[in-house]
Design brief:
167 residues; mainly alpha; MarR/SlyA-like; MarR family transcriptional regulator; WH_DNA-bd_sf; HTH_MarR-typ
Length: 167
């Protein structure tokens, strides 16, 4: 069985048989999988009146544990997005009454973003559906293949410089 990347690689082989295509095949497949995942996640979160980035922010706040509050700077650092993009997300979530934005009483230069009770209830409910969707997206892979893919992708990310921050 062939995937959509195989067709493109066959075309390159016919046109430019001199090219080494191994890396192109890997990167093409990672990109295609990411596009499919993103489409599925976008549709899933849209059903809950959320965008992917908004869910990510709510989930980050929930994972932080009680009191479910982080600085805006921490949210920027954890998201790989610009501060302007994060501010926009925060604005949308404040308007939906899912988070609050307050000046830190201990340091007036910092802004604290916190889940509202409504926001916590929503993200708690959606995360179960989110995990079920991710399981469905990977259900065609055997457990050992998932473990192998996890190991290989972790190695790839580390070699690309994407390492966990120091604790």
């Amino acid at each position: 069985m062939e995937d959509s990347v195989d067709l493109r690689l066959d075309q390159w082989r016919a046109e430019r048989p001199d090219l080494p295509l191994g890396a192109m095949g890997i990167i093409g497949r990672v990109q295609r999988a990411a596009l499919i995942f993103e489409r599925e996640l976008r549709d899933h979160f849209a059903a809950h009146d959320l965008q992917i980035g908004e869910f990510d922010m709510l989930a980050t706040l929930l994972r932080s544990g009680p009191p479910y509050r982080l600085t805006a700077g921490h949210l920027v650092a954890s998201s790989m997005k610009t501060s302007g993009a994060i501010t926009n997300r925060i604005d949308h979530l404040v308007a939906k009454q899912l988070v609050t934005r307050d000046v830190d009483p201990d340091n007036r230069r910092r802004v604290l973003i916190a889940l509202t009770e409504t926001g916590k209830e929503l993200v708690d409910r959606i995360v179960d559906c989110h995990v079920a969707l991710e399981e469905r997206l990977l259900e065609g892979m055997e457990p050992q293949a998932r473990d192998d893919l996890t190991r290989l992708l972790r190695t790839l990310l580390i070699t690309l410089g994407d390492t966990a921050p120091l604790k």
